[in-house]
Amino acid sequence: MLNKIISESNIQKVKKLIDKSDKIVIVTHISPDGDAIGSSLALYQFFLQIGKSVNVLVPNNFPGFLKWLKGAKEIVVGEWKENLTKDLIGDADLIFCLDFNILKRIEQLGPLIRQASAKKVMIDHHLDPDNFCDVVISHPEVSSTSELIFRFICRMGMFEYIDKNCAECIYMGMMTDTGAFTYNSNSPQIYYIISELLEKEIDKDAIYNKVYNDYSECRIRLQGYVLYEKMKIFKEYKTSLIALSYEEQKRFYGKRGDTEGFVNIPLSIGSIIFSVFIREEENKIKISFRSKGKFPTNQFAAEVFDGGGHLNASGGEFYGTLEEAVTLFEEALPKYADILANC
Ligand code: 5GP
Ligand code: MN
């Protein structure tokens, strides 16, 4: 049995809002990952099943390994369709904010969502949600927003409206936010939910292959280059760093490369507990942090790069050169020597 994580009053409030609403918009964070797209498309499929008019909005494009999901082609990419985005947000009577806790995480969509007259509902699992929604369903103890979507639909008594497409999206989001159930995944409830999703006839092995075994040749060659030439190990701090310039990514792809997942690889070295990936984008530097065990990457992200996230997976941004970002990181690292030594 599922235990009741979401409060009954929040379920009832959102149920009423859904009943009253015809035009629903679902929005998720910049550079959407598996959980962002999985939770959004799952809720989208559910609303289609119950006959609502619904759109999914994302600030920018999402990776190719998520494009096979049913509904992915209908997602509106904000930076490509500015007018449509404004119209959809302006006309909506209910907006769901999924997998983010602060408006900064949706970049240019932030002011539009803040000003929208629609009622807003947050469903998320990041710490410290900001106060911009009418109903906040925030559960950092749950490993994915996709799991929360499953719980939310079930608690409304509408399990029967989860079809196979919706179930695939939920499974995919749960899988990607737990590294295919290798971290943050000890709750027995996760496996109960998976058994329920399997009853909807999802093929979990096929989903794994579509997400993790569908790389291009360029991507694998870039990975080889990155690990051989670019990975720097700070032995005394049990830390690894990969810094990749825009030019290097272009060399392998002719455009910005697919570097998703690179940050996790150094953690497969036994002695490494903190992995950092600094990537130069066209107009900013993006930093990803991952750790094994207790090391709080979100504290490091917040203190050094004004970022945030979860204990074991977080990120931040930097406006300056790649070299400056690397220097900032290398100067900050020794300050965490004690914490790292005790992890
Ligand atoms: P990723 O490394 O996959 O881009 O991000 C991992 C996690 O870190 C995200 O799910 C999100 O919770 C958090 N995160 C990434 N970038 C930022 C950022 O710039 N600011 C904040 N506050 N959190 C971030
Ligand atoms: Mn998530």
Please describe what this structure looks like:
The structure is a single chain. By secondary structure, the chain is an alpha/beta fold. The protein has two domains: 8-212, inorganic pyrophosphatase (n-terminal core) (Alpha-Beta Complex), CATH 3.90.1640.10; 217-341, Diaminopimelate Epimerase, Chain A, domain 1 (Roll), CATH 3.10.310.30. It is 40% helix and 17% strand. It is built from 13 helices and twelve strands. It has helices at residues 8-20, 34-49, 82-91, 109-115, 145-155, 164-176, 188-199, 204-212, 217-230, 246-253, 297-305, 322-332, 337-341; strands at 23-28, 53-58, 76-77, 94-98, 119-124, 135-138, 232-234, 239-244, 274-280, 285-291, 308-309, 313-318. The strands form two sheets. A six-stranded parallel sheet has the order 3-2-1-4-5-6, sandwiched between helices. β1, α2 and β2 form a beta-alpha-beta unit. α2 (34-49) packs antiparallel against α6 (164-176). The mean pLDDT is 96. Bound molecules: guanosine-5'-monophosphate and manganese (II) ion (MN).
